[in-house]
Amino acid sequence: MSDINSTTSSTPTNIYAPPEAIVDDVIPDGEIALADRGARFVAALIDGILVGALNGFLAYAVGYNIFAPKTAPSVATQVLLMLSGIALMMLINGYLLAKNGQTVGKKLMSIKIVRTDGSKATIQRIVGMRLLPVWVVSAIPFAGAIVTLVDVLFIFRESRKCLHDNIADTIVAKA
């Protein structure tokens, strides 16, 4: 008499178990793998700490302590700190942005800025259309902080594009 539960192999199989195939995220040809939000956040954090620390040391070197100011900074001091921050950011990241569409943080996180069609984003597009509008608007008291926050919160859309990505027709993709 034959046993219904017997199989041809020596190990019994569970017919109710899920398939054991290895399933990787496969990106069809022509599609771009978007950078995840966490990688973009960590990259921005790295860049912010790097530029902020260097700008703080520069301010301290010229006699202004950003951590314990003796008086409220004048408009001229605020503009000078903002411009020095932009200059430091470009000194640190300009070459990488021009070459690969990356900042130091993006390079460490293996992500880069590209056009929405996947082509290389030029340094003129990155700085002039992606960064400059945010820098200018962020300098406006109160409204700048709100617009900057809204810009960053746009990342939670399905497209993962911030407001500055929409303006510059760019995306952040896996490198």
The CA-CA distance between the termini, in Å, is: 62 Å
Give the quaternary arrangement of the chains: single chain
Principal-axis shape equals elongated
Q: Helix and strand string, N-terminal first?
A: HHHEHHHE
Structural class from helices and strands?
mainly alpha
Summarize model confidence as the mean pLDDT. 85
Q: Provide the β-strand percentage band.
A: 5-15%
Helicity, as a percent range: 40-55%
Sheet with most strands: strand arrangement: 1-2
Report the total helices: 6
- The count of strands amounts to 2
In the predicted model, the low-confidence regions spanning at least 5 consecutive residues are none
Q: In angstroms, what is the radius of gyration?
A: 24 Å
The major sheet is characterized as: 2 strands, antiparallel
Structural account:
- The chain has 175 residues and is mainly alpha-helical.
- The protein has helices at 37-61, 75-100, 104-108, 123-138, 143-153, 163-168; strands at residues 111-115, 170-174.
- A two-stranded antiparallel ribbon has the order 1-2.
- The radius of gyration is 24 Å and the shape is elongated.
Gist of the model:
The protein is mainly α and 175 residues long.
